[in-house]
Each structure stands twice: as structure tokens, then as C-alpha cells.
Amino acid sequence: MKGFKIYIPLALFGMFTLLSATLRSNGSPGKKTGSPLDGGSCTDCHGGAVSTVNWISTNIPKSGYNPGETYVVTAEALGSTPRIGFEITAENGSAKQGTFAVTDASRTKLTNASKAITHTLSGLTPSAGKNTWEMNWTAPAAGTGNVTFYAAFNVADGNGGTSGDQIFASTLQVSENLSTNVNNVSIATFTVTPNPNRGNFTIQSEETILRVDMYSLTGQHIQSLAANQRQVTVNISNQTPGMYLVKINTEKGQWVQKVKVQ
Length: 262
Known about the structure:
Immunoglobulin-like; elongated
């Protein structure tokens, strides 16, 4: 099912070295999205400014992705030029996240050790002033937190040189849906005290706590604590006052509660 579009700066996403007229006709060599982990960019070979645009979409709901679930990601570039290419990847600052899968082998393929998707020769030609590619992305494991898609597009003029090509970058951040991580655990078996607090609180449980994860309300992962006991003390006093989410992992499931830091 195709959902709302999430456009990612494909110049950051994979500003692959789409060489002039050939625009890397068989796809990006990888690591050209301009993302923090890729480093490289299409502007390494092509002149012109990099623009940030909304050229990525997905059917991930606003509530966030569900770990292990597969979603459709769409990259769409605008331009009335002979050829348009792209590369896209996803990461959270420390590692590549999720799994990409090709759904249109004639127009797209995997690159960068299967951590990104790029165009094929058949996927270069735009239609009606735009070029669109679709792929699947399976969300990472629970506890990953926010994931950002990075993409780079080369809108090439086909003049045999790089000077007239335009490189566009786009990014899209999606959060993890923490509410889906609660599995048949009775709230009555846990206590979090004090709440509100000043960044220090204690979790007590009738079940053995395996791990505690702290998140902001936007899904940013703050810290993890290995426990393997029924009482855990958490310290997030270095965080800005406000509401946070604490996710408690036990052998029977997971439980999420809001915690207020004053």
C-alpha cells in the first residue's frame, strides 16, 4: 500500500558521482548521499549548489515505524532534463538502519553493500517533468529510535559535462512507534517513583527487569540500562526538564510509561 510521501535530500542521501552525460548510467557506486556515515557527495564531481528539497516519501505513519515492519519508500525528483538519477540510504548517526529491498528491478538496484538503493540504466529517464522510484524498507529492531533517510539526486542536462548538472539533497527523519512495544504486561506490576522527579527515579517490578530504555517524546533514544533485577535506579538529570518515556523490558514483554522531569 502506498502512503504519504517522505522526501529525503538525495544529495545527502547519495550524491553519487553521476558522471556528466552518463550520469553514472548504471547507478551510484554508493556512499554518495552526503549522509554523516557516507561522507561523500554528488558535488564531489558535479558543480552547482546543493538544495534541500522534499523528494522522499513513505507510508510510515506519523506515530512512527513499527520494528520489523516493511514500508514503501518513494523517491521523486523534479526536472525537465534528459536524465535524473539518485541514491538513498537510512541511518541513525551510529549505523545504517533497516533493510532495503528492490521492488522494481528494471529501474532500481542495491548499492553500498546493500545499505542503499540507486537507479539502473532503465531508471534514468524522467516522465512529465519528474522521475519516481519505489522500494521497500524494513524497520530496524526495537530500541533503535529515530532514523533519518538521506538521499541525493542528480538532475543532469546531458551536455557531456558536469557543469550544467544540478544536485539536490533531501532528508527525512522518522521515529519509532514506542506504543506498539507493549506486550501483555500489566501496569499494576510496576511502580516508578518519584514521578514527577528531578531526573532520578526508581523502577520496581514484580517481574525481573531485563533492560530499561529512555526516550524523548519525539522518539530520540537517550540511554539504555541493563538490569536483570526487580529494582532499577535511573538518572537522566542531565536532560532538559520535560516529559520522557521509559520502556521496561521483561521476559513477558515490554511496558512504556511517561515520566516527568522537573
